[in-house]
Amino acid sequence: MKSGFIDLPDDIEEDALAPVRRSSVLIVDDQAAVLQTLYQLFKDTYEVFVATSGAQALSRAKVNPPDLVLLDMVMPGMTGMEVCRQLKEDPETQNIPVIFLTGNCSVDDEARALDAGAADFISKPFNPRIVSVRVNTQLRLKAKSDLLRRIARTDALTGLGNRRHFNSTLFKEWRRCARNSLPISLVFIDVDFFKRFNDIYGHPMGDYCLSSVASAMKSRMWRPADLLARFGGEEFVCLLPETPLKGAIHKAQELEAAVRDLAISHEGSSVAPVVTISLGVAAALPAQGDDPETLIDAADRMLYESKAGGRGQVRSVEITSA
User: Fold this and answer.
1) Which residues form the GGDEF domain (predicted)?
2) 199 and 311 in one domain?
3) Looking at residue 291, which CATH number applies to its domain?
4) Are 15 and 127 contained in the same domain?
């Protein structure tokens, strides 16, 4: 059995003063002198973005989420406190650490900042050395938490996303497609006669088979928004946002051919002498308030029809009213 402990990469355990490469920092302050000082301090180590207002900061964080936000607490219009609260309420930005910068250094101010979700609090005028150390510390903590989140949503055997990751992505993409009147498709995939494969060749070869099938299908995934995940056992699922039924059928046929081309021997299959997959495809044009479970049910029903119809094939349906 595998250990329940998680080993973190050695490069995350280095001294807090070591630079974190390719991290991005958003600096938010209405004072040009502060922006210039901090930009000069970090420009050679991180990718640096600046904003001069709370509204501008939220917009930039939404479009291109940074790894950390250095945020002035007192600004005209939207305060830093409100910016922090909105960042923490948004699932897309809630994991970004926020360090407050302010000339107010009372205990009450610091407590309010931490209550709002800030990771740290730096008083002005600040010491560049202290700012550098605290920024780098928060970036390293975020790197660790990002790694743990990736592990939590990754299937250990295949390296694909797991069912938990698929569920969260489906709901997010379903809502996005509903807001923008875009189609979304789902492909359910099952390795044919996999129990027989395990009985004949053994479980280690079964693991090899699943890993190889996953790799072959992954090689046919071209778009960043598309998701291939392991649903459980010998079942996989492919989520295709902004894809109508015709495109989803084409993708399913590509996946079926990729697995068949592996030519993994399967003496127990009544479909072919090699490992094959059955696929069920469903597409919908969701509207606000529709339930993505309808898409799941439809794709699952098509998978059942594919298996009942002889396996090693694609069956599909379009949901006309989600």
Assistant:
1) 182-319
2) yes
3) 3.30.70.270
4) yes
H or E segment and range at residue 223: none
What's the rounded mean pLDDT across residues 238-251? Answer: 97
* 245-262: average pLDDT: 97
Q: Flag whether 18 is in a domain.
A: yes
Q: What is the mean pLDDT of the chain?
A: 89
Report the pLDDT value the prediction gives residue 15, as an integer from 0 to 100: 41
Catalytic amino acids?
Answer: 234
Question: And the tokens for 186?
Answer: 């789902």
- Span 192-199, average pLDDT: 97
Structural domains in the chain (count):
2
Is the pLDDT at 105 greater than 90, yes or no?
no
- According to DSSP, residue 287 is labeled -
CA distance 138 to 111: 18
pLDDT of residue 102: 83
173 and 313 housed in the same domain? yes
DSSP string, 6-39: -PPPGGGSS-TTS--TT-EEEEE-S-HHHHHHHH
Identify whether residues 173 and 298 lie together within a single domain. Answer: yes
Going from the C-alpha of 18 to that of each of 10, 15, 43, 143, 147, the distances in angstroms are 13, 6, 15, 13, 18
Q: Decide if pLDDT at 7 tops 90.
A: no
Report pLDDT for 122: 86
Asked if residue 16 is part of any domain, the answer here is: yes
> 273 near 265, Cβ under 8 Å?
yes
Domain that holds residue 248: 163-319
Counts for the chain of helices (H) and strands (E), in that order:
10, 10
pLDDT at residue 321 in the model: 59
Indicate whether 192 belongs to any domain: yes
